[in-house]
Design brief:
Length: 217
């Protein structure tokens, strides 16, 4: 029987990037598929321009993530993107890109990991359509078809996705991003992330234990 690992995330969330190796490892467990739920961390009135205050807030978190997990933060991000006061952080376009990619058959997790690398390592502006189109093409999607889906899914469809994701977050009692839960045999099992950061094998063991518990319930 198949199981679904639900990931409530945001493409611009550093701690989601920290958890990426856990999610990737779990996605390799036989019978497990990953379903993405973009929560819209920085959308609408919460969009923000990079400022010294934001840099001062985010950089200690980034250093902590690197220490805990070994996830890289490139100089193009730390010394480039984060220092550019013209950058606006907006979660909506990359989330729309994930929805668009999935309609065209590309696994959402594949694009999510590429978006995270583009942002946190390469310092790319992943809220810009041209960047999103280039990344999608790099992963093998037809650029014109992807652009059409970006246009079709922007706005109201993406907002509806955010609403559904936040409702799921509330239902699970999640405290923020990332929140992970395994759905199997009619049973939902929240999976803690913090204790497993930097330890993908331990997270896989937790997923496998949740599968066994649900199957035996």
């Amino acid at each position: 029987m198949s199981a679904t690992l639900h990931l409530i995330h945001d493409p611009l969330c550093g701690w989601c990037y920290a958890a990426a190796p856990l999610v990737e490892a779990a996605s390799q467990v036989p019978g497990v598929t990953v379903q993405l739920h973009g929560g819209g961390m920085l959308v609408g009135e919460r969009r923000l321009r990079l400022t010294p205050a934001w840099r001062a807030y985010v950089m200690p978190h980034d250093r902590r993530i690197a220490q805990l997990t070994g996830q890289p933060f490139g100089a193009a991000y730390t010394d480039g993107l984060l220092q550019d006061d013209t950058v606006v952080l907006d979660s909506a376009p990359p989330t729309t890109a994930l929805l668009a990619a999935q309609t065209l058959g590309l696994p959402g997790l594949t694009l999510l990991h590429r978006l995270q690398q583009a942002h946190f390592v390469e310092g790319q502006r992943i809220a810009e359509p041209a960047v999103l189109r280039a990344l999608a093409a790099e992963l093998g999607l037809d650029e014109a078809a992807f652009a059409a889906q970006l246009d079709a899914l922007a706005g109201a469809p993406t907002e509806a996705h955010f609403t559904q994701s936040r409702a799921l977050l509330d239902w699970l009692g999640g405290q923020g991003f990332p929140t992970l839960a395994l759905e199997h045999a009619g049973r939902w099992t929240p999976l803690p992330v913090g204790q497993h950061l930097g330890r993908p094998e331990a997270f896989v063991a937790a997923v496998q234990a949740a599968l066994q518990t649900a199957a035996g319930a």
